[in-house]
Amino acid sequence: MQSYTEENYLKTIYHLAEKTTNVQTNAIAEQMQTKPASVTDMIKKLADKGLVDYIKYQGVTLTETGKNTAIDIVRKHRLWEVFLVDKLNFKWDEVHDVAEELEHIKSIELIERLDEFLGFPKADPHGDPIPDKNGRFAKTQFIKLIELKVGDAGTITGVSQHSSAFLKHLEKLGLTLGKQIQINDVTDFDGSVEILLSDKQVNISREVAKHILISSNGKN
Amino acid sequence: MQSYTEENYLKTIYHLAEKTTNVQTNAIAEQMQTKPASVTDMIKKLADKGLVDYIKYQGVTLTETGKNTAIDIVRKHRLWEVFLVDKLNFKWDEVHDVAEELEHIKSIELIERLDEFLGFPKADPHGDPIPDKNGRFAKTQFIKLIELKVGDAGTITGVSQHSSAFLKHLEKLGLTLGKQIQINDVTDFDGSVEILLSDKQVNISREVAKHILISSNGKN
DNA sequence: AATTATTTTTAGATTTACCTAAAAATAAAA
DNA sequence: TTTTATTTTTAGGTAAATCTAAAAATAATT
Q: Is the CB of B6 under 7 A from strand C?
């Protein structure tokens, strides 16, 4: 059984490990709004519990057990987000903080039943995949919108940026999950992208285009 | 802003205050499965924060602020219980522990929306009243089943005992909330009560009868 | 390779919520 | 009204998760 804090460390390490194999102390500290010294302390504790492998000055990796625990927290977080949006009508930019608390509720039964109540969703409101109860993710084939060529079409199925500002911006432009889009043009000058969104012409900056994930319809 | 632990103390004091005005240190300790010395420590802290009035050796009472905080936690607890039973199909004897965790989730918006989602319920799965967002309880007129006379009839609307064993027992006898009952006889020998429950004759012990709450239909 | 900069760890403190054991206050009984 | 019993508090200590400041290891630069 892990404490609330230990769970947060595991989750953070899990997410950071998606980018680098050995997760650095400083990176964890920054992500968790704490100091490197505190991270070192906690890492030792997690290592003692067999949740991470740790070599001094070399960063950490999750053990099998640690990874499973982290995935379980991610699962809970994302299921709660679905609940908040689908059932309680929260907007996709409002759910993160509350889910951050709800993810630590311990009952397994609760999550099983919540999953069923929500219809076993495969993705959260931002398109992030929800692992099943065995920790397995459905395979997803995302392409960043920025990588599409003129003429390519697809469906918006995710975002790789979860800040409220970004999500509200997308909402205003009408770029929400499930929407069909087609690339009309890429501006040479600033790299902004002209897209066709249900007969409407929308221009988005290169920065925005980087963080929209598309699943292509057939040909690619 | 209170800690998880402080909230639990306030809630416990609130419940104990329903029986005695000045809540004793030992009573709190017993209820919270902790030691009197720890309670004294926490009481001082709560007093410093203006959440309880405290005179040494004389027990505590909640201040207005303390009481409002406690009621808010009770509200959350009971709404989550409704959610668990109505939406996730938990049994009424299975919800307490999970609600005990959920009640500490902080978002006000969450509770407002949950309340609406559940249809603004007035009572939890055990018949306990749910305060509205201003902390006001709907007036309830309960009579203990044990106090009814032969011939009296009414509806089961609550229980004053929440142990899993008791609730399962009631479930097995068919004595669930909303059921109509009538008193057929009270046994001289052991004080057990014969009741009529949808044409069936059911005998319940005096002890059980003490903890079933009835709202009488018209005449009383 | 030596120096400088960065990252990480250690050492020693602090805060929160506990604890045990002993002392003090209050309540009950002789 | 003493004595005894109960309740409550104080004193001193522990474990978890932090912190700051300083030391040690690693990485980058000249």
A: yes
